[in-house]
Design goal:
about 260 residues, alpha+beta, Beta Polymerase, domain 2, 11 helices, globular
Protein backbone atom coordinates (compact mmCIF):
# COMPACT_ATOMS: atom_id res chain seq x y z
CA UNK A 1 0.00 0.00 0.00
CA UNK A 2 1.56 3.29 -1.17
CA UNK A 3 -1.35 5.73 -1.30
CA UNK A 4 0.79 8.72 -0.22
CA UNK A 5 4.42 9.81 -0.67
CA UNK A 6 5.06 9.36 3.06
CA UNK A 7 6.28 5.91 4.08
CA UNK A 8 5.40 6.35 7.76
CA UNK A 9 1.87 7.47 6.90
CA UNK A 10 1.43 4.52 4.53
CA UNK A 11 2.40 2.16 7.36
CA UNK A 12 -0.15 3.80 9.68
CA UNK A 13 -2.87 3.49 7.03
CA UNK A 14 -1.98 -0.15 6.44
CA UNK A 15 -2.31 -0.83 10.16
CA UNK A 16 -5.64 1.01 10.27
CA UNK A 17 -7.16 -0.85 7.32
CA UNK A 18 -5.91 -4.29 8.35
CA UNK A 19 -7.13 -3.82 11.92
CA UNK A 20 -10.55 -2.52 10.89
CA UNK A 21 -11.03 -5.35 8.39
CA UNK A 22 -10.23 -7.91 11.07
CA UNK A 23 -12.92 -6.46 13.35
CA UNK A 24 -15.66 -5.79 10.80
CA UNK A 25 -15.24 -8.90 8.64
CA UNK A 26 -18.01 -9.11 6.06
CA UNK A 27 -19.43 -5.74 7.22
CA UNK A 28 -16.35 -4.02 5.78
CA UNK A 29 -16.95 -2.55 2.30
CA UNK A 30 -13.93 -0.32 1.66
CA UNK A 31 -11.49 2.25 2.99
CA UNK A 32 -10.55 5.48 1.23
CA UNK A 33 -8.75 8.78 1.57
CA UNK A 34 -10.65 11.96 0.81
CA UNK A 35 -9.76 15.58 1.57
CA UNK A 36 -6.39 17.02 0.59
CA UNK A 37 -4.78 13.62 0.01
CA UNK A 38 -7.46 12.96 -2.62
CA UNK A 39 -7.73 16.41 -4.20
CA UNK A 40 -4.01 17.19 -3.99
CA UNK A 41 -2.01 20.07 -2.47
CA UNK A 42 -1.35 18.08 0.70
CA UNK A 43 1.81 18.50 2.75
CA UNK A 44 3.30 17.26 6.02
CA UNK A 45 0.82 19.38 8.02
CA UNK A 46 -2.32 18.04 6.32
CA UNK A 47 -5.10 16.12 8.03
CA UNK A 48 -5.40 12.52 6.84
CA UNK A 49 -9.11 12.38 6.00
CA UNK A 50 -10.48 8.85 5.64
CA UNK A 51 -13.82 7.22 4.98
CA UNK A 52 -14.54 3.60 5.88
CA UNK A 53 -17.62 2.27 4.12
CA UNK A 54 -19.58 -0.40 6.01
CA UNK A 55 -22.60 -2.51 5.09
CA UNK A 56 -24.68 -1.59 8.14
CA UNK A 57 -24.58 0.75 11.13
CA UNK A 58 -21.89 -0.35 13.59
CA UNK A 59 -23.02 -2.76 16.30
CA UNK A 60 -22.01 -1.99 19.89
CA UNK A 61 -19.34 -4.69 19.95
CA UNK A 62 -17.84 -3.30 16.75
CA UNK A 63 -17.69 0.19 18.25
CA UNK A 64 -15.93 -1.14 21.34
CA UNK A 65 -13.36 -3.01 19.25
CA UNK A 66 -12.78 -0.03 16.94
CA UNK A 67 -12.30 2.28 19.94
CA UNK A 68 -9.45 0.01 21.06
CA UNK A 69 -7.93 0.08 17.56
CA UNK A 70 -7.93 3.88 17.41
CA UNK A 71 -6.46 4.12 20.92
CA UNK A 72 -3.62 1.80 19.86
CA UNK A 73 -2.97 3.53 16.53
CA UNK A 74 -2.88 6.95 18.17
CA UNK A 75 0.01 5.75 20.33
CA UNK A 76 2.08 4.46 17.42
CA UNK A 77 5.38 6.26 16.90
CA UNK A 78 4.76 8.30 13.75
CA UNK A 79 3.21 11.73 14.18
CA UNK A 80 0.90 10.87 11.28
CA UNK A 81 -0.98 8.52 13.63
CA UNK A 82 -2.32 11.60 15.42
CA UNK A 83 -3.47 13.27 12.18
CA UNK A 84 -6.12 10.73 11.19
CA UNK A 85 -9.64 12.08 10.82
CA UNK A 86 -12.64 10.30 9.38
CA UNK A 87 -15.95 8.49 9.66
CA UNK A 88 -17.57 5.08 9.35
CA UNK A 89 -20.24 5.40 6.66
CA UNK A 90 -23.09 2.88 6.25
CA UNK A 91 -23.32 2.08 2.54
CA UNK A 92 -26.92 3.21 2.06
CA UNK A 93 -26.24 6.61 3.64
CA UNK A 94 -23.00 7.04 1.71
CA UNK A 95 -24.73 6.42 -1.61
CA UNK A 96 -27.54 8.94 -1.11
CA UNK A 97 -26.45 12.57 -0.65
CA UNK A 98 -29.94 13.40 0.62
CA UNK A 99 -29.07 11.51 3.82
CA UNK A 100 -26.46 14.12 4.74
CA UNK A 101 -26.43 15.59 8.22
CA UNK A 102 -27.12 12.50 10.33
CA UNK A 103 -24.40 11.61 12.88
CA UNK A 104 -21.82 8.93 12.08
CA UNK A 105 -19.10 7.32 14.16
CA UNK A 106 -16.29 9.85 13.72
CA UNK A 107 -12.63 10.23 14.71
CA UNK A 108 -11.56 13.85 15.05
CA UNK A 109 -8.10 15.08 14.14
CA UNK A 110 -5.86 14.68 17.19
CA UNK A 111 -8.32 12.40 18.97
CA UNK A 112 -8.05 8.77 20.03
CA UNK A 113 -11.79 8.21 20.54
CA UNK A 114 -14.74 7.74 18.20
CA UNK A 115 -17.74 10.01 18.80
CA UNK A 116 -21.04 10.60 17.02
CA UNK A 117 -20.79 13.55 14.62
CA UNK A 118 -22.15 14.74 11.27
CA UNK A 119 -18.75 16.24 10.39
CA UNK A 120 -18.15 13.99 7.34
CA UNK A 121 -21.79 13.50 6.38
CA UNK A 122 -21.85 16.19 3.71
CA UNK A 123 -22.26 16.41 -0.04
CA UNK A 124 -18.76 17.89 -0.28
CA UNK A 125 -17.20 14.77 1.27
CA UNK A 126 -19.26 12.50 -0.98
CA UNK A 127 -18.26 14.46 -4.08
CA UNK A 128 -14.55 14.35 -3.24
CA UNK A 129 -14.77 10.65 -2.45
CA UNK A 130 -16.64 9.83 -5.66
CA UNK A 131 -14.49 11.94 -7.97
CA UNK A 132 -11.04 11.72 -6.37
CA UNK A 133 -11.10 9.18 -3.52
CA UNK A 134 -7.88 7.22 -3.00
CA UNK A 135 -8.57 3.51 -2.60
CA UNK A 136 -6.96 1.86 0.42
CA UNK A 137 -9.14 -1.24 0.11
CA UNK A 138 -12.39 -2.09 -1.66
CA UNK A 139 -14.13 -1.15 -4.91
CA UNK A 140 -13.95 2.14 -6.78
CA UNK A 141 -15.65 4.84 -4.68
CA UNK A 142 -17.55 5.94 -7.78
CA UNK A 143 -19.59 2.73 -7.41
CA UNK A 144 -20.55 3.64 -3.84
CA UNK A 145 -21.74 7.26 -4.23
CA UNK A 146 -24.45 8.55 -6.54
CA UNK A 147 -23.67 11.66 -8.67
CA UNK A 148 -24.36 14.96 -6.92
CA UNK A 149 -25.98 17.82 -8.91
CA UNK A 150 -23.80 20.93 -8.96
CA UNK A 151 -26.73 23.07 -7.80
CA UNK A 152 -27.12 20.95 -4.68
CA UNK A 153 -23.38 21.16 -4.05
CA UNK A 154 -23.39 24.95 -4.34
CA UNK A 155 -26.39 25.17 -2.01
CA UNK A 156 -24.57 23.21 0.69
CA UNK A 157 -21.43 25.35 0.33
CA UNK A 158 -23.49 28.52 0.64
CA UNK A 159 -25.36 27.19 3.67
CA UNK A 160 -22.13 26.19 5.41
CA UNK A 161 -20.51 29.51 4.64
CA UNK A 162 -23.39 31.48 6.14
CA UNK A 163 -24.19 29.22 9.06
CA UNK A 164 -20.61 28.95 10.26
CA UNK A 165 -20.02 32.63 9.55
CA UNK A 166 -22.88 33.65 11.82
CA UNK A 167 -21.52 31.36 14.53
CA UNK A 168 -18.01 32.83 14.24
CA UNK A 169 -19.26 36.42 14.28
CA UNK A 170 -21.74 35.84 17.12
CA UNK A 171 -19.21 34.02 19.35
CA UNK A 172 -15.76 35.21 18.21
CA UNK A 173 -14.07 34.30 21.49
CA UNK A 174 -14.81 30.62 20.84
CA UNK A 175 -12.39 30.76 17.90
CA UNK A 176 -9.90 33.25 19.26
CA UNK A 177 -6.69 31.20 18.96
CA UNK A 178 -3.80 30.97 16.54
CA UNK A 179 -5.03 27.79 14.84
CA UNK A 180 -8.54 29.02 14.08
CA UNK A 181 -7.30 32.42 12.95
CA UNK A 182 -5.52 30.79 10.01
CA UNK A 183 -8.06 28.00 9.52
CA UNK A 184 -10.95 30.44 9.13
CA UNK A 185 -9.14 32.55 6.53
CA UNK A 186 -8.12 29.53 4.44
CA UNK A 187 -11.53 27.87 4.79
CA UNK A 188 -13.45 30.96 3.66
CA UNK A 189 -11.08 31.45 0.74
CA UNK A 190 -11.70 27.85 -0.29
CA UNK A 191 -15.47 27.98 0.18
CA UNK A 192 -15.86 31.02 -2.06
CA UNK A 193 -13.61 29.36 -4.66
CA UNK A 194 -15.72 26.18 -4.46
CA UNK A 195 -18.97 28.14 -4.73
CA UNK A 196 -17.79 29.93 -7.87
CA UNK A 197 -16.24 26.87 -9.50
CA UNK A 198 -19.05 24.50 -8.53
CA UNK A 199 -16.65 21.85 -7.24
CA UNK A 200 -14.57 21.34 -4.09
CA UNK A 201 -10.91 22.30 -4.15
CA UNK A 202 -8.01 22.37 -1.74
CA UNK A 203 -7.13 25.11 0.73
CA UNK A 204 -4.08 25.93 -1.39
CA UNK A 205 -6.18 26.27 -4.54
CA UNK A 206 -8.71 28.39 -2.65
CA UNK A 207 -6.02 30.68 -1.27
CA UNK A 208 -4.42 31.14 -4.70
CA UNK A 209 -7.82 31.86 -6.25
CA UNK A 210 -8.71 34.36 -3.55
CA UNK A 211 -5.44 36.24 -3.97
CA UNK A 212 -6.02 36.39 -7.73
CA UNK A 213 -9.70 37.40 -7.67
CA UNK A 214 -10.41 39.30 -4.45
CA UNK A 215 -9.33 42.71 -3.22
CA UNK A 216 -5.49 42.61 -2.99
CA UNK A 217 -5.75 44.12 0.50
CA UNK A 218 -6.51 40.58 1.78
CA UNK A 219 -3.45 38.91 0.24
CA UNK A 220 -1.10 39.44 3.18
CA UNK A 221 -3.66 38.03 5.64
CA UNK A 222 -4.10 34.95 3.44
CA UNK A 223 -0.33 34.47 3.26
CA UNK A 224 0.02 34.74 7.03
CA UNK A 225 -2.75 32.18 7.54
CA UNK A 226 -0.41 29.45 6.27
CA UNK A 227 1.91 30.06 9.21
CA UNK A 228 -0.88 28.94 11.59
CA UNK A 229 -1.12 25.41 10.15
CA UNK A 230 1.82 23.54 11.77
CA UNK A 231 1.27 21.86 15.14
CA UNK A 232 -2.50 22.51 15.44
CA UNK A 233 -2.64 20.85 18.87
CA UNK A 234 -0.26 23.58 20.09
CA UNK A 235 -1.61 26.44 17.97
CA UNK A 236 -5.17 25.94 19.25
CA UNK A 237 -3.91 26.84 22.76
CA UNK A 238 -2.01 29.94 21.64
CA UNK A 239 -3.57 33.40 21.31
CA UNK A 240 -3.80 34.86 17.81
CA UNK A 241 -2.29 38.11 16.72
CA UNK A 242 -4.96 40.59 17.83
CA UNK A 243 -4.95 42.68 14.66
CA UNK A 244 -4.95 39.58 12.44
CA UNK A 245 -7.90 38.11 14.30
CA UNK A 246 -9.92 41.30 13.98
CA UNK A 247 -9.08 41.31 10.27
CA UNK A 248 -10.11 37.63 10.05
CA UNK A 249 -13.59 38.47 11.35
CA UNK A 250 -13.84 41.24 8.78
CA UNK A 251 -12.68 38.78 6.10
CA UNK A 252 -15.59 36.48 7.00
CA UNK A 253 -18.01 39.37 6.56
CA UNK A 254 -16.39 40.31 3.26
CA UNK A 255 -16.55 36.75 1.86
CA UNK A 256 -20.19 36.39 2.85
CA UNK A 257 -20.99 39.64 1.02
CA UNK A 258 -19.00 38.51 -2.02
CA UNK A 259 -20.83 35.20 -2.10
CA UNK A 260 -24.12 36.99 -2.73
CA UNK A 261 -22.92 37.72 -6.26
CA UNK A 262 -22.99 34.01 -7.02
Amino acid sequence: MKPTPYAELNAVLQELVTSVQSVLGSDFVGAYLQGSFAIGDFDQHSDVDFIIAIRHELANDHVTALQAIHERIFDLGPEWAKHLEGSYFPAAALRDYRQRGTPLWYLDHGSRTLVRSDHCNTMIVRWILREHGVILAGPSPATLVDPIPVGELRSEIDSTMRGWGRQILDTPDSYRNRFYQGYIVLSYSRMLHDLVEGRPGSKRAGAAWAKAHLDPAWSALIDRAWACRPNPAVAVREPPDGADYDQTLEFVRYIMRESERY
